[in-house]
Amino acid sequence: MLETLFSTAGALAMAGWLALLASPLAPRLSDRIAAVAVPLILSVAYAGLVLANWSTAEGGFDSLDNVALLFQSRELLLAGWIHYLAFDLFVGAWEVRTARAEKIRFFLVVPCLILTFLFGPAGLLVFQALRLVGSFPRSGSRAN
Asked: Please, what's the b/e burial string for 91-106 (b: 16 or more CB within 10 A of its CB; e: otherwise)?
């Protein structure tokens, strides 16, 4: 059951990331899939795992040792992984929407998306740096 949920969550997240990569072709559909549908489905799975397993888990968030103890539960480890999948995708979708609104060319956003997919906060950092540098046209240009 846990392996099936792990695989399903990964496939759903991948579908969301692929939707983001296709966003210049279908921005509304991409937003609905990557910013809403997939993160909400993953959030339901996360909440279910936490609600079903939290009361029997050892550990907590008050020390690194307790976090390690908490994640010795395979159910809560999976919940933590799904947490990453949902939030990283949500951030990637925000990056795409923000880039579109600020007329940042999509090819400049793709490396940020890859970093966000692989390393979460590092991708967000690079995207924010891209916005700060402002080396992209601000008006009258296509966002692709």
From this structure: bbbebbbebbeeebbb
Distant-in-sequence, close-in-space partners of 123: CB < 8 Å, separation ≥ 6: 88, 91, 92, 95, 112, 113, 114, 115, 116, 117
| Band of residue 134 on the pLDDT scale cut at 50, 70, 90 | confident
Q: How far apart are CA 19 and CA 37, in angstroms?
A: 11
Distance CA 47, CA 83 (A): 9
For residue 86, which of 122, 34, 29, 123 has the smallest C-alpha distance? 34
Going by the DSSP 8-state scheme, the letter that residue 35 receives in this structure is I
* pTM, two decimal places: 0.88
Rg value, the chain, Cα: 17
pLDDT in tens, 36-59: 999 999 999 999 999 999 989 899
Q: How far apart are CA 79 and CA 42, in angstroms?
A: 9
Tens digit of each residue's pLDDT (9 = 90 or more) over 8-19 = 999 999 999 999
